[in-house]
Amino acid sequence: MTVTHEVVNQAPPLTGFSTADDPALLEALHRADAGWGEPEVRELGALAGTEAVQEQSRAAEEQPPRLRTHDRFGHRIDEVEFHPAWHRLMTVAVEHGLHAAPWAEARPGAHLVRAAKFYVWSQAEPGHGCPVSMTYAAVPALRSAPELAERYEPLLAARTYDYGLRPPLSKAGLIAGMSMTEKQGGSDVRANTTRAVPAGDGTYRITGHKWFTSAPMSDVFLTLAQTAEGVSCFLLPRVLPDGTRNGLRLMRLKDKLGNRSNASSEIEYDAAVAWPVGEPGRGVRTIVEMVNMTRLDCVIGTAAGMRAGLRQALHHTTYRHAFGRALSEQPLMRAVLADLAIESEAATTLALRLATAVDRAQAGDAGEAALRRLGLAVGKYWVCKRGSAHAAEALECLGGNGYVEESGMPRLYREAPLLSIWEGSGNVAALDVLRALGKEPAALDAYFAEVDAAAGADRRLDAAVAGIRKMLGTLDDPERAQRAARTLAERMALAFQGALLVRYSAPAVADAFCASRLDGEWGNAFGTLPTTADLTAILERARPVSSPESLTEAAG
Fold first, then answer.
1. 243 phi-psi bin (left φ>0, alpha ψ -120 to 50, beta other)
2. What is the DSSP string of 23-44?
3. What are the sequence ranges of the domains in the chain?
4. What is the largest CA-CA distance in the chain?
5. How far apart are the C-alpha atoms of 236 and 167, rounded to whole Å?
6. Distance CA 21, CA 440 (A)
7. Which CATH class name applies to 23-280?
8. Which residues are CB-neighbours of 486 under 8 A, at least 6 positions away?
9. Which end of the chain is more exposed for a tag (fewer CB within 10 A), N or C?
10. Using CA atoms, how far apart are residues 307 and 36, in angstroms rounded to an integer?
């Protein structure tokens, strides 16, 4: 065979790195007295960067789950088959406590350490984060039924991934799902038509259709159904205590834009047996705790995707040459990379601050509980909204190389919109900001206490916070407030991020963030930072010190 060309000017494979090699991540652990978790975070981050795990991620994505409704004899089985790589990824996640383990740990910072591990591991493969996240979120909701929590919580928190359809209480560990939305209601779960009737023995029989149920292979589900008292919450197992299948039928798996390694389905309940969780008619309130925790993971997951995209962009542009020098040395590309780095660090810092608020709220700090309530709505809206734009720009840094599946960038790009949609798309999150402000005045006090901790450090941040106070004074009319909800959520998120960066990040990062995001020295696309921004300092902080390109530079 004739050799027509030699492969040159291509970046080498990006393997052997650590997703935990991230100053913003490690600094957040130590300032919240959670530095004890750094060794395990580093261990998991190093594993995420291995060639073997990257291959598992590719296989799980390229060979998605398949639904088998019947066996060869015609018996209904409703089973979902996964590639073995999925189960390996799930095993690592559960054994490292990324699911509900923090609820069983009394150690300070347990939820922050769990968030850090979720951040580094989901950079390897985000799809399996869905059932991991829902298991994490199920525990606080389940605690509304103390007798059920006493039996199920230890198994939800167990660090054993025990896959297979068996009675839940006979297993060594459980995975939980959530089944709420219906085709006629979507986010308006009060419009649900699924009904639950008492069976006379403390259980209910649930009949109805659910339009979008992710992770249908889970052991138990928290689900909503109408009762005589109104929408109520229930715990529904796939297998009953006597070993028989519950009346849960998998109708089809969704053919999704992204998140392909994870199964999402339409299901029907046919007189399915379920146990009530919380007060009858108060199901929405009961399940809100689960929603809030999964929203936290949406913010963490988006920040993880940003970091993964930034890493790929930094790696490619370091090795790719054009017009006589590496792309990463070209002034315009450096501006783009620095802008991506700022967005990434702002998202990471906010996500981990919200995880810290979970820890402190669990310890009884009412102010942190209030901050978590409003901060999650604000962060869910803005950080997740920025994920898609960030992924697109990071992909473009690789040019045509980034547009092909083998680069991994299309997977990041397809995944990003999910985290903005899941647990309430943009409008739902923005309206939740208004709801929190209206129903929990302490939440606004907690928010201003947080951003005011940076008062006087940067005039642009001070002006942004003053502008939010002024804006809030004009939103006394409900219609006007709704029209302004997105603007308010965006401004509150940017001020929150700015305050955190001013207090904790490198001066060059904080200065460029405040100049661009808060003071208007920014265009409508990445790469439009003010010319005064210290690109070198920003990029030095963003570039992992143990990355292949850094090692190459050190050797040279």
1. left
2. HHHHHHHHHTT-GGGHHHHHHH
3. 23-280, 285-542
4. 80
5. 12
6. 38
7. mainly beta
8. 381, 426, 427, 430
9. N
10. 23
Per the structure block, which two tokens stand in for 501?
């960066």
Q: Which residue has the tokens 């995944």?
A: 415
Question: Is 196:274 a contact under the CB 8 Å cutoff?
Answer: yes
State how far the alpha carbon of 239 is from the alpha carbons of 119, 219, 248, 443, in Å.
Answer: 32, 8, 9, 41
CB 507: neighbour CB atoms within 10 A? Answer: 12
- Structure-token match 């339009």, residue found: 211
Taking alpha carbons only, the member of 153, 173, 96 closest to residue 129 is 96
| Residue indicated by tokens 């490198």 | 506
Residues 6+ apart with CB under 8 A from 438: none
Q: Which two tokens stand for residue 280?
A: 């009858």
Contact present, 141 and 156 (Cβ < 8 Å): no
**Site of tokens 């309940």:** 269
Task: In whole angstroms, give the CA distance from residue 520 to residue 115.
Answer: 32
Please state whether beta strands 195-198 and 176-179 pair in parallel, antiparallel, or not at all (unpaired): unpaired
Please give the Cα distance from 441 to 448 (Å, whole number). 11
**What is the SS3 assignment for 351-416?**
HHHHHHHHHHHHCCCHHHHHHHHHHHHHHHHHHHHHHHHHHHHHHHHCCHHHHCHHHCHHHHHHHH
271: left (phi over 0), alpha (psi -120 to 50) or beta: left
**What are the structure tokens assigned to 211, written together?**
């339009």
Identify which of 384, 315, 310 has the alpha carbon closest to the alpha carbon of residue 354: 384
Cβ partners under 8 Å of residue 381, min gap 6: 426, 429, 430, 433, 486, 489, 490, 493
CATH number of 285-542: 1.20.140.10
Residue pLDDT, tens place only, 240-284: 999 999 999 999 999 999 999 999 999 999 999 999 999 999 988
